[in-house]
Amino acid sequence: MVFTAGQIAGILEGEVEGNPEIAVHKLAKIEEGEKGSLTFLANPKYTSFIYTTKASITIVNKDFIPEQNVETTLIKVEDAYESFSKLLEYYNQVKSNKTGIEKPVYQSDTATYGANFYLGAFSYLGNNVKIGDNVKIYPNVYIGDNVTIADNVIIFAGAKIYSESIIGNNCVVHSGVIIGADGFGFTPDKNGEFKKVPQTGNVVLEENVDVGAGTTIDRATLGSTILRKGVKLDNQIQIAHNVEIGEHTVIAAQTGIAGSAKIGKRCMIGGQVGIVGHITIGDNVKIQAQSGIGRNVKDNEVLQGSPALNYGDYNKSYVHFKNLPRIVNRIDQLEKRD
Q1: 0.70 surpassed by pTM
Q2: Which of 132, 139, 270, 291 has a CB 3.0–4.6 Å from the CB of 308, allowing a cystine?
Q3: Burial letters for 46-71: b for 16+ Cβ neighbours within 10 Å, e otherwise?
């Protein structure tokens, strides 16, 4: 796709300084800009590059005044970083604005979908699937029976949505995601053999949920596994059966959450965190990477370690831990004197 400086300024409500007809067809870092590319300057540390960049167009803040000659055409906006992000979003919308049904696909006669629908090749829509408007389903996606998908949802290639799942407005499901597989439910019999407990619930994603590539979200044993609105999941996360995650909580990669754990609103959970089942984590909790959470957590706590401690206590304890060999040596010396 090709855009001129004038077109970009119109999208961003900016002002052009230079050639409004100059065109770009790709994006670049300011230090790596070349002819035909668009870049931006938001961080003052990179100001020197604007005088040497080969990028055809550079987005800058309105208060930017060049101290030397610049070859690049400038688009001046209120906030260069925010405007560049807006442009990326617009670019993605244009790029992904596919419609129509490719072949071959399988669609049940009872599956329905709304306006501006895109279904990629080799996809499968089961019985009684209900899909809203402006939904994009990329190739090799499986949608099981009785799944409901609301408006403006994107499901990338290779995702699997098991039966009964519910996906709200504006959700994004990335490649390799599995939503609604059976929870890890087994019980031992009198011979010590494990028998499967049927998993009869479902998964519910409320609106504006993002699910990263390779993440798995298990269906509930009874009821629903629920991700509330605005939840953002990174890649390769495991969400077990009957977990509930509160609004606008974000979770980094390789975190595992065991069954029936309840996580509050606006929490920030680092990578490789382990959370045991059947506990409650409050609102606004921050958990540092590789922590292990084995107890209930109150609102606003900041935790680190395994088992996790209060963040401040952990840092104080770690100072002593680093000095432990020297401390032990001093104790040995004192004992020898006695």
Answers
A1: yes
A2: 291
A3: eeebbeebebbbbbbbeebeeeeebe
3-state helix, strand and coil shares in percent for the chain, rounded to the nearest 5: 20, 30, 50
Distance CA 98, CA 85 (A): 22
Helix (H) or strand (E) holding 58: strand 57-61
Residues in the chain: 338
> For the residues 251-276, what does the mean pLDDT come to?
97
> CA-to-CA distance for 206 and 86, rounded, in angstroms?
24
CB 282 within 8 A of CB 275: no
Q: How far apart are CA 223 and CA 226, in angstroms?
A: 9
Q: How far apart are CA 200 and CA 222, in angstroms?
A: 6
**Does residue 101 carry a pLDDT above 80?**
yes
Please give the backbone phi and psi of residue 49, each rounded to the nearest 5 degrees, phi first. Answer: -70, -20
Does 93 have pLDDT greater than 80?
A: no
Report how far residue 116's alpha carbon sits from residue 132's, in angstroms, rounded to the nearest whole number.
9
Quick check: 168 and 185 in contact, CB under 8 A?
A: no
For the chain, the average pLDDT equals: 94
Residue range 266-310, pLDDT digits in tens? 999 999 999 999 999 999 999 999 999 999 999 999 999 887 768
| Catalytic positions | 241
The per-residue DSSP string of 200-261 comes to: --EEEE-TT-EE-TT-EEEPPSSSEEEE-TT-EE-SS-EE-TT-EE-TT-EE-TT-EE-TT-
Task: Say how far apart CA 225 and CA 210 lie, in whole Å.
Answer: 15
Q: Could you give the maximum distance between any two Cα atoms of the chain, in Å? A: 88
Is pLDDT at 338 greater than 70 in this prediction? no
d(CA 10, CA 86): 12
Q: Which helix (H) or strand (E) holds 333?
A: helix 324-337
Q: Give dist(CA 293, CA 143) in Å, integer.
A: 34
Tokens of 83: 């405007």
